[in-house]
Design goal:
The chain is of the alpha/beta class. It has 11 helices and 12 strands. The structure holds iron/sulfur cluster. The site of iron/sulfur cluster has 12 residues, from loops.
Length: about 375
């Protein structure tokens, strides 16, 4: 595992988010033996200890040294909101008093024991976001900073404490653009996907990008085996630019070339996210163009209802965005299927607590 570059966050150094080699350097700097690193790593991720007193494999003196000179807690649960559909939204406080949110979403498929088959945690990667997608509540918060790898992994560890069954899937779709915090996100992925930690499998880990082309190319070159999702939302350069200013920097043609390059390198299918807006991207021409794009390589398309962000008081273009009617939504799905596209509906879980897609804005 690579040693991640870190953003400076005030306070003692974090223990979470570090690979074993990184912890080995830390142990040596503390005047300890290298092998202690693996013990610390296991105590955090395998045994999931939450206080230094519980690191019983370590001598008392080392536990005290770690407590004095390092930090075990990377995020603290501030509030947990419960939706009627079983979704939980977590508000976390960070070490510098900034806040981020995660959402734990149960799947609609229920197992024999009455528990949902999948439990998906949508994690944040930045405090705020500067990409300005018009439909997104997070965009109203300016980017304050990147999250550290520890703050990303700890969202998982803390949320897990609120679920009797293991979290099965992780999606990097919360606050922030994961590609703009690539090193810390991938350091967190390495820990989450490490078989030793038994946290989550790579095939159940998805990184969603608004279309940061260099990040897609880097994932391809590194042959990353997590899943890639791309927020497409429009099939013409003009509409995409209106919805997502990032499209001016990386136009649709360049984005599609990067996605094809990713597929050539990894042979992994790609998911397109497509929010339906009334009169903007929900017509017959959109169906045809989307189907043409989707058929260029193995893909699936997640069609997503637009969720109200009125609580952020949107203005201008954003204020005029409206959800497609349920009838038109169904028509769009049917037409895409007729065109041979693999289509899924991304559900509106947690909408009553502003936890649905695009609604994370620290409204709690
Ligand atoms: S959709 Fe994602 S990338 Fe776009 S503004 Fe929101 S958080 Fe940022």
């Amino acid at each position: 595992m690579a040693v991640a570059k870190r953003d400076i966050v005030a306070g003692p150094p974090e223990l979470k988010g570090r690979s074993v080699p990184d912890l080995e350097v830390m142990m040596l700097n503390l005047g300890e033996k290298k092998y202690r690193a693996q013990q610390v790593y296991d105590a955090i991720y395998v045994e999931r200890r939450s206080t230094f007193d519980e690191f019983t494999v370590l001598p008392q003196a080392l536990r005290e040294k770690l407590a004095a000179e390092t930090r075990l807690e990377s995020v603290r649960v501030d509030t947990v909101q419960h939706s009627d559909d079983g979704t939980k939204k977590f508000l976390f406080t960070l070490h510098d008093d900034r806040k981020v949110e995660s959402v734990l979403i149960p799947s609609e498929l229920i197992e024999d024991d009455g528990h949902p088959r999948r439990r998906t945690l949508c994690v944040s990667t930045q405090v705020g976001c500067n990409l300005g997608c018009q439909f997104c509540a997070t965009a109203t918060l300016k980017l304050a900073r990147n999250l550290t790898a520890g703050e990303i992994v700890d969202q998982f560890l803390q949320a897990q404490l609120y679920s009797t069954k293991p979290i099965t899937n992780v999606v990097f779709m919360g606050m922030g653009e994961p590609m703009n915090n690539y090193d810390n996100v991938m350091a967190a992925v390495d820990i989450l996907n490490d078989q030793r930690t038994k946290m989550v499998a790579p095939r159940r880990t998805t990184l969603s990008t608004a279309g940061v082309v260099p990040g897609i190319i880097r994932m391809a070159d590194e042959k990353r085996i997590i899943k890639l999702a791309v927020s497409l939302h429009a099939t013409t350069q003009g509409v995409r630019e209106q919805l997502m200013p990032i499209a001016k920097k990386w136009p649709l043609t360049e984005l599609m070339e990067a996605i094809e390059y990713y597929y050539q390198k990894t042979r992994k299918s790609v998911t397109y996210e497509y929010i339906l807006f009334e009169g903007l991207n929900d017509g017959e021409d959109d169906v045809k163009r989307l189907a043409r794009l989707a058929r260029r390589l193995p893909t699936k398309v997640n069609v997503i209802p637009f969720h109200d962000i009125d609580f952020t008081h949107p203005q201008g273009f954003a204020a005029d965005l409206r959800p497609t009617s349920p009838q038109k939504f169904q028509w769009f799905l049917d037409r895409l299927r007729e065109e041979g596209v693999q289509v899924f509906i991304r559900s509106s879980s947690g909408q009553d607590i502003d936890a649905a897609c695009g609604q994370l804005a620290l409204s709690a």
